[in-house]
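Re: your question from the hallway

Yes, I did run it. Sequences:
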Amino acid sequence: MPEVDGFLGFGRPHLGISPYPERADPRGNPVDLWLERRLGWMQSRAPLIRRGLSARADAVLALEPAIALLSDEALRAAAARLRPRLLARRRGDQKALIEAFALVREVSARLLGKRHYKVQIMGALGLYDGRMVEMATGEGKTLTATPAAVVAALAGDPVHVVTVNDYLAARDAEETRPVYEFFGLTVGVIETDMDPAARQAAYACDIAYVSNSNLTFDYLRDRVSLRQRRGKARHAAAALAGGGRGAGLMLRGLAFAIVDEADSVFVDEARTPLILSSTSDDPEAVQLYGAALDIARALAKGADFRVDTLSRQIELTDRGRARLAELAGAQPGLWRIRLAREELARQALSALHMFERGHDYVVLDDQVQIVDEFTGRIMPDRSWQGGLHQMIEAREAVPVTGRKETMARITYQRFFRRYLRLAGMTGTGMELAPEFRDTFNLTTVRIPRHRPLRRRHLGTRFMRDGASKWKAVARRVSVIHAQGRPVLIGTRSVEASRRASAALKAAGLPHEVLNATQDRDEADIIAVAGLSGAITVATNIAGRGTDILPGPGVADLGGMHVILTEFHESARIDRQLYGRTGRQGGPGTTEAMVSLEDELFLRFSPWLLRVCLAVRLPLLYRLLPLRAQRRAEAEHASTRREQTALDRKLERSLAFTGQAE
Amino acid sequence: MAGSFLSTIWYRVAKLQPRLRAHVRVHRHRYRGQSWYVLHDHASGRVHRFTPAAYMFIAQLDGGSTVDEVWRRLAESHALDAPGQDDVIQLLSQLHQSDLIQYPGTPDVADLLERHGKQARQVFTQNLTNPMSFRVPLWDPDRFLIATLPAVRWLTGWFGLFLWIMVVGAGLTVAAINWERLTGDLSGQLLSASNLIITLVSYPLLKALHELAHGWLLRARGGEVREMGIMFLVFFPVPYVDASTAAAFRSKWHRAAVSAGGIFVETFVAAIAVMVWASAEPGMVRAVAFNLVMVGGISTVLVNGNPLLKFDGYYVLSDVIEIPNLATRATRYWGHLVQRYIFGARQLKPGPATAGEKVWFLFYAPAAYVYRLIVMVGIALFVAQKFFVLGVLLACWSVFSSLIKPMAKNLRHVVTAPALRKVRRRAMGWTFGSIAILLMLVLLVPVPLRTDTEGVIWLPEAATLRAGTGGFLSDDLTVSGGAVVAAGDLVAVLEEPRLHARLAVLEARLGEATQRLAQAEAVERLRIEGARLDLEKTRAELSRERDRLSRLQVMARLDGAFRPSMPVADLAGRWLAEGDVLGHILPPRAEVARLVVRQDDIALVRDRLERIQLRLAGWMGARHDATLIRAVPQATFQLPAPALGSAGGGRLLTDPADREGLQLLEQAFVFDVALPDALADAPFGARVYVRFDHGFEPASAQIWRRVRQLFLRQFNA
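Structure:
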């Protein structure tokens, strides 16, 4: 709870062993966690925090007439005057805080031409307080982060503004750079292909814009370079003895992070730990994985192995094991070891039967790249563990990369929890409030909209099968296209976007496809997607952070139309897609056109699906996504909880290896 | 060994260079024909068992090679069964948790401190969670044991065993010979105040000897005893020793001997005591001897020596059958069976166990559970008799610890365990389904509600022939034994010669008084009143004596067969005092059974009677319906027949001080039921078992009624 952890003077935060400030890993007990979840749920729904923010935002707005009269120089001087007060009393000095926010608001108005709305100031105050701020899509989250970042940086904290990718990091940094520079603060942007020295320089800035994975990897690199010399004193001693060798760290400390699209980072991407690895050459790899695939192809589904679709696992049967021993008899090396060959076989079978090209991964430039199941984005810096990645490379006949040797690993849950002050922004975080609370110690606050919502949802249409769905989508698109309105068609996978594209092509509709394989011209496509007459097919790529600006005259036609072609496992993601239109109070319509054959229904409510197929009652269809999504979300939530618990247990059992990352 | 072959966290352990700590000794044991490696940690005194596969890895940890090197070597040399990285990590973690390894480098200090704190609190938390066996470690008895060992060493070997067999054999023989005397009125003697006081002294002494025996046997075989203290077993202080180092002995007989030390001592003492008891005169010595027999014998058979409870007998058993950790593993095996076959979690692997071990597991776990439950409830009830509140607390605790706590744990497992994830629905269905069915059975399904009691075939009071007055039975009875008589028939005549004489005297005095009255009327008017009174008195006396005369004739008051109380020949000429029983007139058929109902059951019997069924002792097979003919509305402390009381073998508790065995300790009600024709021939005085049928009621309601009665009685008392 930020209220009691050091900021109000109730004791200092418990610091971890590290040369720079960071919080020690908490050791919560199950009862505490359970209570935290309940508390998180209640706090997010009670308006108390929101009222406090509103009152303070009013105070900030009230300073506008006085501050508007000041010259630029006077503004700078005022900020400089505030710094000692911010530094000394931290959150305690509300007056200084409110004045500082008012200054940033004025500067933003002068330099960027955007004066923060009240809701944005509320959001900024919430961020500064260390909350999870829920703001509707299109309310200007980039601008909201600025005052909080400026004020924290003025108070001397290294500030990290965390985005979901490099593009957004660069874009947001450029957009707000003038404000920071006005106050004499430096801004750094970290990009994936920067060298260590450049990174170090960027982190040395007052405010660093960085993508979540880059940030975490850099932290892991610091950990690896420190290894056992992690204590402040040991590190300092090593630096003295080695003539400044200890200065090789990237980060300056985990003081304050503002995480944009926090639900995506904290929940969707947090399902697998981040792994820092070095690639080692393994000349036998190609042959090994090839043999594994050959053997796996000889095994019969059902008799030799079973596929568990729900938990995505392959199980070998006893017969399968025996057969495997027989098949592997002639092979040397690893194949002689029972556990090793069974694992190889399971991975080969997974590669063959569970991972689909275009759905789970894409092949780009002779490389297998993972596609995030939730967001549809390519995750270039990730790979599957334990040889699975190489197995899929072998299957796709692209060069097999060497075996990855893990050097360090950390989960987002563990990493972000180490920030002394953590804040998040999200468009859709309400249903995750309990989880934010128990895992990240974040209280969710819902910030009201600046303007009322004018977006309309036209309902859901259920189609028998995939083919008729795409046909119906094409028909629907042509109708709206004829009105001159832009259309965005959201798909769940690369494969689906191809099919949508094919259907549109067949109907003779000009369109753009935006999917994981075309990451680079994303910005160009987005730039025109809002223009009158544009048709864009996109995986969830368009769902996050990027603003599709409606073209001139589009608003008068009724705004952009968004078609959802397949429900996601979480209703949250559906809402994010819908949120592409009707931004900032503009008009827009959304609808869902799905088929009963969609994987979601098959996986999470097969029973109800069977009933639906038999009864053909439209009313019953409506239950289908509700039920499937609820089940999926519950499943994922419990998986995440279990994983956090497992991670904690693992760490405890690994205590003998020394400190964790 | 399960888990995947390559681990993503291998990098954390790969470069470690662990070795076993210097004071850890390795012993190779054989258990049920299989080799195991036992690591004996001399610092903590604990012993850990590892499979040869695990030891293969442990043995190569020399402090120089890294974990990765060792693992690679294993993979090279033991191709087929090489352990996976996950297995290795798990093993290392286990070794670390048991403080068996050390390695260069800084450990996670926070973790070390946390574990230290946990261990420091361990005894305390153990005591908190198990207040029935509260341990207070006191001292290190090793030096004492070494010093005293020479004095008892001759007893710790074969000679000791031989001596034990001889003495216990003799003791058993004596006990068998005196079995009746020994066990007669056991509970009375056991709970008598003097015995309890003796127990207060003898029990801790005997237990101290018991614990020292463990220590000496262990020390004599080279083990160490580093902890001794006092354990409050059900709030009763007894000493204990920590003999866990015995597990490092290679021979299972040595291990078993140490575990059995206490049993040896207690049975030995009990055997000597039984011989003393048999030959001693009643008095203090005999009382103490009896007490020692009971404490040494009963506690060994019921508790300490019983392998179903986790005391010495259990350890002896698990040593002898070579299954260490029998109880935990048996429970776990059952858990595995349920999860695998009922819940269908097929991916679960059972812990390592041979076929023979599995058979033991199958039988041991349920037997131990049931026995433990019985003993706990028994102790609670026993204590409740003396200290009600304490007993109720004990009962609550035992229900909590043996029913609710494990159930909550298991439910939690079913609902949250990641291992059951795939079969969660089925597991929950089975679990909650069976709980629901059980609850429904208890709460809703009506089961027969009955009251069982006993009665006797009742002979009416009129059937008894009594001497109406004192007299000699005339030489020949008017009817012979067994003859059928009708009501009013003369059965016997008493002779009282003095009665005739007295009658004659009285008649004479009557005449005299009459004349005296007449004379007074005529002569002396003043004396009339006195003469009249005299006459009246004489007349009354005469009529009383005449009445006695008539009562000299003993008449049958019922139709039936005459059954003299002793052979007719013996009766003849015998003097009978007034009221003495001469014999009975047995009616041709038994009409009535008289029953006694405890006051707890009276409401049910009065208000909800649907049916009465009788069974005659000796003819248990047949049940007969009967009807109620008479209910005495008032409760009584007096039994109608001694056969119904505990002194007479019945189920109602009677006052042991009452010679006749008729005085009840608790009030009861008397009922008469008419016997059916089928029971017409039932012998009079025979016991009948009676069942009052009250229809059906759910078990929960029945239990609730009894519990309420128990509490009402206890708190009103």
